Fold this sequence. Notes:
This protein is mainly beta. Helix content is 7%, strand content 36%.
Amino acid sequence: xxxxxxxxxxxxxxxxxxxxxxxxxxxxxxxxxxxxxxxxxxxxxxxxxxxxxxxxxxxxxxxxxxxxxxxxxxxxxxxxxxxxxxxxxxxxxxxxxxxxxxxxxxxxxxxxxxxxxxxxxxxxxxxxxxxxxxxxxxxxxxxxxxxxxxxxxxxxxxxxxxxxxxxxxxxxxxxxxxxxxxxxxxxxxxxxxxxxxxxxxxxxxxxxxxxxxxxxxxxxxxxxxxxxxxxxxxxxxxxxxxxxxxxxxxxxxxxxxxxxxxxxxxxxxxxxxxxxxxxxxxxxxxxxxxxxxxxxxxxxxxxxxxxxxxxxxxxxxxxxxxxxxxxxxxxxxxxxxxxxxxxxxxxxxxxxxxxxxxxxxxxxxxxxxxxxxxxxxxxxxxxxxxxxxxxxxxxxxxxxxxxxxxxxxxxxxxxxxxxxxxxxxxxxxxxxxxxxxxxxxxxxxxxxxxxxxxxxxxxxxxx
Length: 463
């Protein structure tokens, strides 16, 4: 009778690079494969857990939908040993599994029924391994960069494609995933012009643009034992390694500041900027300091790295989603008239435990907090703060205005973090100075926790 090794992982879902480098690990440290066997694996998605909500602000309801055809564009499987050396790697793309069906079983036992994908591989090495499946870590399918850091050092990161040949000659601790660059690392013209002025005239550090992160998923099975006398079976469910920020804006206070409504145009010069972006997440399976599977954030946030989201016709949405979200999705509750979902790299580290609030929200360490800047076009008559001379003024010409605050929460992969934003001032121009890293001024009130194929954390914040 065959011995079957089975691993089940819990999870839920959401929804570059130059040439190849040579081997990351020396031939001396990489065992020679002398014997192979077979392994059958299945990959599936878990059902969403039930939602719960509390607090005064009405939280949004509904999450983006997830499907193999829309969200999983490429899967890479690899096995690594106790020394972190990757001994076997295999890539399958969407065309491979979507052309299969559960009643089409060829000699390799492939099947795909729209919910679950399974395949038997005959060329896997014999031994004890950790098995990982990673989805969409390819610059050609999502906004990601993949990189190699020699000896695991992120200071030596070099862009490289994660081909099967490259991965199979690497150490898992030397592989990283990052945001892709924007074109020329620039921003929308209205922001780039003010940034260049600030860099030249006020000593503001330069910034570099990054694209919104693509969707990255991971499944892990530990202790997979492959022998020459039996077929190993590994079953896993994919977990999102990315987080999502949901921004909801209540602009009512701006009408009170101006004495009339309509003096801020949210369809022009409207963008979202997130700076102090995590440098990378690790390809390796990661366990935190108390033994739990953890978000593989590498612990380095880069102040000058800025993810921005911009649409010249208005970046925020003003209506409920009609596609791509679960039925019954309601995001625009209370006075929140604008919203936008943004995929980001998680910024939670193992040591983010000092600021645990009573409802379970975790405050990030200062060095890892995202900085949020929102822009819109102020119209003549709008009251704003001129941060060059420190005076409150009234606009006489249409001018971009900015609000800036820290996002205090430590954000983990597979979670949605909802920020409910109101305003206590009319914004600033030129670009506001970021709050001092040693005196984080933003106060966030934890409101609700509910599931989005994991959890939505909702907080009220004032800018």
